[in-house]
C-alpha cells in the first residue's frame, strides 16, 4: 500500500521548482491556511493515542488526510510548522511519549532557559526551539534560530489570533476572523457565575462571595475589538511579521522577560498569591493576548486548573544541518498544501493542483482501517 500511495502522490507533484528564500517563505504561504491546518493535531493524536498505529501507518495516514480545521490554536499551529521543517516521523515519538524523557522535552525555567539559548550561540545550524508552558497555564509556540544568532517567533493563540495575523504586515482587516474576541472565555465565565445566580450582564446582582473576581468578569465582558487589537499589537509590533531579531534585541526584549516571567510563576502555583499587573502586561507583551485564567489581583489558584500536571516551561531544541533546509521544506510544504481543499501553490510553478483530486485518489487506493476511521 505504501508504494502505491507514494507513487500516487508523486504523480500529483510534477511541478517546476522555484527556490524560496529559506523555510520561512513556505511558512508564510501556508500561514494563510493556519485554520484549515489546525485539524491535523487532532488526527495525529487520534492515530497515535487511540489507534496505536505504527510510525509508517502514521505517516501514510497523515499524508492523505484532508486538513479541515475551522479555527487557530497555539499547539496545532506549532505542529504543522514543525511538520514543514522536519516531516512527520519526528512527531510520532513526541506525541507517543509525551510527558516522558523519550519525547525530548525538558524543563527550563528562569536562568536555565537563558542558559539553554546561551549554549547554542554562534551555531551554524538552524535550531527550532519547541516551547510550551504546561500545567496550570498553557501556551505553545516556536522560536527559530538561524546562523548569525538571528531569532524568529512563530505563534498563534487560542481564542485570540491566528498565525495568519501574526505574520501579517498590517493588522488592517484582520479583526473578526484572524483576531477575535474570546467567545469561549465569555461562555466559560457565564457558566461559572451562573451557579451564583448572575451573569456577566448582571454582575451587580452577584453575591459578595464573588467580589474577588468582579473586575476580571467585567474585563472579559467588555473585551472588544480595540482591546484585542491593542493587545495583539503589543507583541506583534516587536516579534511578529516574521521579523528576525539579532541576539541583543532577542535577549533584552524577549528572552530575559520570558525567563523572569516563568520563574515568577513557579512559586505561585497552588497558592493564593495574586497575579500582578506586571505579569499581566508581560504575558501580553510576549504572547499578544491576556491569559484568560489570570487577572491582576485575582489569587493564582482561583482560576487555574490543578489537574493538568506540574507547572513547567518545557523546551525541545531540534537542530538542522543546513542554513535554510529548502529541499525538505519544499517537499513537506507541498504535502501540506495538497491536504487543503482548493489550495494553489504560489512558490512552485506549474499546474496548481487541488487536494480534492489527491484525497479522492488516495482514498480509492488506500482502503485501510485507519483511513476509514479518519473520514468517519
Keywords:
376 residues, alpha+beta, disordered C terminus, 18 helices, 2 domains, five-stranded antiparallel β-sheet
Could you characterize the architecture of this molecule?
The protein has 376 residues and is of the alpha+beta class. The chain has two domains: 332 residues, no CATH class; 40 residues, no CATH class. Helix content is 47%, strand content 9%. The protein contains 18 helices and five strands. Strands 1-5-2-3-4 form a five-stranded antiparallel β-sheet, with helices on both faces. Strand 3 and strand 4 form a beta hairpin. Helix 8 runs antiparallel to helix 13 and helix 13 crosses helix 14. It is globular and about 60 Å long. The N terminus and C terminus are likely disordered.
Number of beta-strand segments:
5
Overall structural domain count: 2
Which sequence of SSEs, written as H and E, runs from N to C?
A: HHHHHHHEHEEEHHHHHHHEHHH
Strand order of the main beta sheet, please? 1-5-2-3-4
Termini separation comes to 21 Å
Proportion of residues in β-strands: 5-15%
> How would you sum up the global shape?
globular
What is the helix tally? 18
Low-confidence stretches: 1-19, 350-376
| Helix content percent band | 40-55%
Based on CA atoms alone, the radius of gyration comes out at: 22 Å
The largest pleated sheet is described as: 5 strands, antiparallel
